[in-house]
Amino acid sequence: MTLIRAFLVLAVTAFLAGCGADGEPVQPTLNAGVGISNNGAYVGGALGLHKGPVSVFLGF
Question: Within a 13 Å sphere around the CA of 5, how many CA atoms are in the beta-carbon half?
Fold first, then answer.
C-alpha cells in the first residue's frame, strides 16, 4: 500500500511540474488543516490545480 501511495505522489508531482512546459505556469492551491478530536490529532488538506474549466484536486 505504501509503494502505491509513493508512486501516486510522484506521479502528481511530475504532473504539476509539467504544467508550465508549454505555456504560462499554473499556480497550484493548497488547503491544509490540523484538528483535534477525542481520538487524537489529525492532519488533512488538499492540493489543487485550476486551468480554465478544468480543476484537479488531490486530498490527503
Answer: 4
- pLDDT on residue 55: 85
- What nine digits make up the cell of 10? 510522484
Q: Which of 18, 14, 16 is nearest to 30 (CA)?
A: 16
The three cell numbers locating residue 52: 480554465
**What mean pLDDT is predicted for residues 45-60?**
85
Residues 6+ apart with CB under 8 A from 32: 43, 44, 45
Global pTM value? 0.45
Distance CA 59, CA 9 (A): 11
CA distance 34 to 41: 7
